[in-house]
Amino acid sequence: MTTTEDPALAPLTGPPPADSRARAALLALAKQTAKDGPGPHATEAQWAKGKLTVHERLALLFDEGSFQETEPLRRHRATGFGLEDRRPYTDGVVTGWGTVHGRTVFAYAHDFRIFGGSLGEAHAQKIHKLMDLAREAGAPLVSLSDGAGARIQEGVTALAGYGGIFRRNVAASGVIPQISVMLGPCAGGATYSPALTDFVFMVRGTAQMYITGPDVVHAVTGERITHDRLGGADVHAAVSGAAHFAHEDEGECLSEVRYLLSLLPQNNRELPPSVPSEDPADRRCEALFDLVPADPGRSYDMRLVIEEIVDDGDCVEVHASWATNIVCALARLGGHVVGLVANQPASLAGVLDIHASEKAARFVQMCDAFSIPLVTLVDVPGFLPGKDQEHGGIIRHGAKLLYAYCNATVPRISLVLRKAYGGAYIVMDSQSIGADLTYAWPTNEIAVMGAEGAANVVFRREIAQAADPEAVRADRIKQYREELMHPYYAAERGLVDDVIDPAETRAVLIRSLAMLRAKRADMPARKHGNQPV
Description:
Low-confidence stretches: 1-8
CATH class of the largest domain: Alpha Beta
Number of helices: 22
Protein name: Methylmalonyl-CoA carboxyltransferase
CATH topology of the largest domain: 2-enoyl-CoA Hydratase, Chain A, domain 1
Mean pLDDT: 91
Domain CoA carboxyltransferase N-terminal: 17-276
Shape: elongated
Helix content: 25-40%
Radius of gyration: 27 Å
Distance between the termini: 45 Å
Number of domains: 2
Domain CoA carboxyltransferase C-terminal: 280-515
CATH superfamily of the largest domain: 2-enoyl-CoA Hydratase, Chain A, domain 1
GO molecular function: propionyl-CoA carboxylase activity; transferase activity
Organism: Streptomyces cinnamoneus (Streptoverticillium cinnamoneum)
């Protein structure tokens, strides 16, 4: 570690020279010392773990030459346990701002080479100051996490430092975009900061998050488990849902962070950035006829539908590996950013369950907070039945999605592609809960339930008493489908605004979003609602 006895710092500890140029030279030495960190051995150790140094990471995140560091010469004031002889510059965290695609972004990045990136009093104060500045300036905040948690030698002051971070995460929630990038270990209470932010990225093999590590797990439960299997990138991206994105390396990860930032507004008072699109707004989507089978029982990949509709087939899928029965994605339509929520027939037939409801609710809330219009693509057979779902709280969790949609004031458009049954139809942003515009394809079936189930309930006694129950059942299924489930039943009753040609989907959505762009919706005066959590 850099210490007060380091010969390289000897000129900095004596009386300053009288000459201004000499003083400027000493300043340059001090800043270069801060940037170099503890020395080549520490840098080589970082590289040996497959990790970049803090300044290499910042160089990948920000536009070239745009990063302006704050408090590079900050040092801790703690004593005891040898800390008084170990006072490196930066105190293990680099803070500052720069530009990403020409727009201001704030960032703090742990330097694992210094105290393992652990958080002490000075370290925390640097982060607090930067978080306050980001919120007041109205610009996104990115954290590059690679730290060993609270600095044990500084005791409770380190814990208080985390409390200050959490409080600021909450204060900035829905005000500025907050992105956590996990590039190393994150354990204990430190994990709650990323959990409070809008998006979490993780790098496979080097990043882990957990409340209690493998040693504690073994001591308490007797189970042996590796760091990666306990809290690695794929665990949180596919099992716990704590991470939105998992990437192979830091370069790929930070490139995707830059792309995500290009889709987000600076703050909640601005609209997302729009860009000219060379993809014609009136482009017909003939491929949709082949991508989506008319038979409601056949599977297909909703992601291909989204790619066919959006500008240049380009989108960012959020939580792609978790709750895969629903798709949440950011994309552009006509050059303007939209959030897409869609049932995924290729996974569990596209039913809504506990995790899908949570995933979509969180995404809808994020889009609403940052003025991103919502497009909902509906092909849902209902909520997943079963004891585990009921006992796990599907009612409470499903209500989260319902609440998120009902509470959203951004432009909202829903489109029923095929089936939309029961309460799941209502929850998927139906007209009755406030969708501004609702459309349907001529393959839609909007009903309380499927024809087979409905006939078994409505005509149960007649079928049971018939001489040929199967023939009567088939006849009643046909009757129910023809009378209550034909594609125009909902349109005749004003429950959808129009039944559209699937090939015109892109053009209809772009025209509709353009009309709704100036939408203003006032909510009742209140401190806040009491949403189900």
